[in-house]
């Protein structure tokens, strides 16, 4: 990437490597207003873990720091996560080999920015993760601050006069306390629960991760600082125990292609597709005879983005025929990685897969598109076959803009927005 570039990244726990000798790394968690809510939204070496547990800072030595960011569990009010670097001695220009790189849980690099235009500033917003179209993007920022960390912090709502907030320059670094041997992405839930308390299901014993399939994208040169696979299973969040668990598979390409995903356990999965360009977008499951079996995407929307359901067969690979005009990115994730429904509204555009783990509730939907809106539900209570979903029940099948409230049975269940070529919002309502 060069300065100003951006691209979608998977909505999973990412590891952000900040490399540069003599650089202090930190993260700022911002709301829609562009400001932090308080000192807790500043993650630095003096406070290395966010109160929610979704962002944490660790030092790897050798001029490398890691920011672990759980994009799939981060609070809805947080819309941007800034990756910041500062120097206590010298300037950004003096930092050799300054770069920011994001890694997926299997160690695959999904975004990298080499900072080459540092000047006399002592603090810089190196990169940012920000919400877009229901997912997350990585942007190469490279915005320096000649007035240092104090100016950068003040611009984003940090009270630098507060002795508990990071100052400019930062306090002298003290040797970090030994880190307890826990998985870096084993995030704890946010301290505040929604008003509609969702009952929790018993936790699932950890499942050994399946080796990820090899992506078609060019391999990233090996580096001693590249992280290894991260744990999955219960780390996706409480209240879900259905379907296989594995490290997500990602592939990028351009125009029409046939995608083969091998080595995944059988069962329902979530397929996320992002296409940059106009024209028709189609995604079809192929059977063992290479015949078209099931249409997952059939859209004429520009810059298509959406998540759909597919099933990995018990024997063989998941094979997908893609029709697209322009560059695309496809990710296959466990069903457990889908977003949970709560009383707080979620906003998306295009097809989507959501999970409901609570009791009987109503689902309020506001659809702003002009075409068909189809919403289905899969009730999983009493369905013990994790290799396939039960028969779906149609909740909504309408055309054009509308506001609608439909009843949901008790969870666990999957809510599938099968067709939604347009913006929409959804939330649970207390019964």
Keywords:
five-stranded antiparallel β-sheet, 43% strand, 28 strands, 2 domains, 1 helix, Jelly Rolls, Lipoxygenase-1, 431 residues, six-stranded antiparallel β-sheet
Helix content: under 10%
Named CATH topology of the largest domain:
Jelly Rolls
Report the structural category. mainly beta
- The geometry reads as globular
Proper CATH architecture of the largest domain? Sandwich
Give start-end ranges of low-pLDDT stretches.
162-237
**Tally of individual domains:** 2
Number of strands: 28
Mean pLDDT: 81
Terminal Cα span: 49 Å
List the secondary-structure elements in sequence, H or E: EEEEEEEEEEEHEEEEEEEEEEEEEEEEE
Which strand order does the major sheet show? 1-11-10-7-3-4
- Main sheet overview: 6 strands, antiparallel
The radius of gyration computed from the alpha-carbon positions, rounded to a whole number of angstroms, is: 22 Å
Give a description of the structure.
The protein is mostly beta strands. It has two domains: 6-155, sav2460 like domains (Lipoxygenase-1, Sandwich), CATH 2.60.60.30; 234-429, Jelly Rolls (Sandwich). 2% of the residues lie in helices and 43% in strands. It has one helix at residues 148-155; strands at 6-9, 13-19, 24-30, 42-43, 55-61, 64-70, 80-86, 99-103, 109-114, 123-132, 135-145, 249-254, 257-261, 267-275, 281-286, 292-299, 305-312, 318-323, 327-334, 339-340, 346-349, 352-356, 361-367, 372-379, 393-399, 402-408, 413-420, 423-429. The strands form six sheets. Strands 1-11-10-7-3-4 form a six-stranded antiparallel sheet. It has a five-stranded antiparallel sheet with strand order 5-6-2-8-9, with no helix packed on it. Strands 20-22-27-24-25 form a five-stranded mixed sheet, with no helix packed on it. A hairpin with a 5-residue loop joins β15 (281-286) and β16 (292-299). The N and C termini lie far apart (49 Å). Mean pLDDT is 81; it is low at 162-237.
């Amino acid at each position: 990437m060069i300065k100003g570039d951006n691209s979608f990244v998977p909505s999973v726990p990412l590891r952000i490597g900040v490399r540069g000798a003599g650089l202090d790394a930190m993260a700022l968690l911002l709301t829609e207003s562009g400001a932090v809510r308080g000192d807790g939204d500043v993650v630095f070496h003096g406070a290395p873990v966010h109160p929610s547990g979704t962002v944490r800072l660790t030092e790897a030595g050798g001029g490398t720091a890691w920011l672990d960011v759980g994009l799939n569990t981060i609070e809805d009010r947080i819309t941007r996560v800034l990756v910041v670097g500062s120097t206590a001695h010298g300037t950004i220009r003096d930092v050799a080999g300054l770069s920011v790189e994001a890694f997926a849980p299997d160690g695959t690099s999904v975004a990298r920015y080499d900072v080459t235009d540092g000047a006399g500033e002592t603090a810089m917003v190196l990169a940012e993760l920000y919400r877009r179209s229901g997912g997350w993007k990585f942007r190469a920022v490279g915005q320096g601050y000649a007035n240092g960390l104090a100016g950068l912090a003040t611009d984003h709502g940090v009270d630098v006069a507060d002795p508990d907030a990071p100052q400019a320059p930062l306090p002298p670094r003290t040797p970090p306390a030994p880190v307890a041997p826990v998985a870096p992405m084993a995030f704890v839930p946010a301290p505040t629960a929604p008003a509609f308390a969702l009952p929790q299901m018993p936790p699932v014993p950890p499942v050994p991760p399946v080796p990820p399939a090899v992506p078609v994208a060019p391999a990233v040169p090996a580096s001693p600082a590249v992280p290894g696979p991260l744990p999955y299973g219960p780390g996706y969040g409480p209240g879900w125990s259905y379907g296989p668990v594995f490290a997500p598979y990602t592939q990028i390409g351009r125009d029409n292609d046939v995608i083969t995903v091998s080595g995944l356990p059988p069962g329902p999965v979530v397929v996320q597709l992002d296409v940059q360009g106009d024209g028709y977008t189609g995604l079809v499951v192929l059977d063992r005879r290479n015949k078209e079996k099931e249409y997952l995407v059939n859209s004429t929307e520009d810059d298509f983005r959406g998540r759909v359901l597919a099933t990995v067969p018990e024997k063989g690979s998941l094979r997908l025929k893609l029709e697209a005009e322009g560059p695309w990115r496809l990710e296959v994730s466990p069903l457990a990685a889908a977003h949970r429904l709560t009383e707080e509204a979620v906003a998306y555009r295009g097809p989507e897969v959501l999970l409901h783990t609570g009791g009987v509730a109503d689902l309020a939907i506001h659809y702003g598109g002009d075409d068909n809106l189809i919403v289905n539900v899969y009730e999983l209570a009493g369905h013990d076959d994790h290799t396939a979903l039960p028969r779906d029940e149609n909740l909504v099948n309408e055309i054009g803009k509308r506001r609608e409230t439909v009843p949901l049975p008790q969870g666990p269940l999957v809510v599938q927005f099968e067709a939604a070529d347009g913006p929409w919002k959804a939330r649970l309502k207390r019964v």
